[in-house]
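Here is one chain, start to finish.
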Amino acid sequence: MAAPARAILGQGPAEPEEAYPVRAAVYERTGPAAEVLRVTDVPTPEPGPGQVRVRVQASGINPTDVKTRGGLTPRPIDGFQIPHLDGAGVIDAVGPGVPEERIGQQVWVWMAAFGQRWGTAAQWTVVPGRQAVPLPDGVSPELGASLGVPAMTAHHALFADGPVDGQAVLVAGGAGAVGHFCVQLANWGHAAQVLATVSGPAKAQLAKEAGAADVINYHDADAADQIRSAAGGPVDRIIEVALGANLELDLAVSRPGTVVVGYAAEPADPVLPVRACMTANIVLRFMLLYRVPAAAMDQAATDISVALSTGALTLSGLPTRRFALDEIAAAQDAVDRGIGGKVLVIPD
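Its structure:
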């Protein structure tokens, strides 16, 4: 008996089920998750020149995925959009110019949904070969899908101004996903001291599990004194999640030449105290992962894989929450609410 037919998004008449087995979360317009996201069938993606197709085992959600779907950072939609930049899975097909030996590789995927419709919230995705990075043996798909945006942001924030070997590094928001990988990559990079700030005891425990040597509650009146005491003086590099809220503290623990790197935007732009920054002689750097040069992204992917192979990057201190593909709206809403840890969608 012939397989039942079903309508396929982006296709005309219904086709046999075997021809298009891909289930995916899609949206065709921006808006609230429950209103625009749905799970449907899409044509099986085929890898083009230089691309690989990945059978997705886990898809990681980041705040940027939620903002894009919600229309806060809108991007063109090519008929439909499958969300999520990050994921992990197994390469099962390659396009022209990609060695067939890559078929069967376990990989972690970065920037999948950027500039194309094939994000990772589906059973399959296609990406340029360089954006599917081999996972070392023994690394779980859950960890692989948690890398991408957080770990590559952490890498660029930490190393864009040179090595951290021998330096004191302060990670603001050490319990978040970016902060988690900042702590672990700073340790991997042989920082002399890795400190983190958090908002309370539960988050302090997570930052310690990630590897922070000292964790300070930034609400404490003597937070600056605690940081300087733990670091043995001023810190050399600060990775900052909320520049406006934390700049006064950052200036208090800086020395001339301290680099403060902001990687997140607050709802209201901060007022920059120019004279205080001049007096402190600090360096301010801002970054947005979408605009980081390709060479720096490739270096980040290489270094992250090396760190993975040594066991330096783990999920310890980064709780994971798993949702089924049919629960995509709830999963994105959880991220939108600021739920702690990492939210993963499992396509099967």
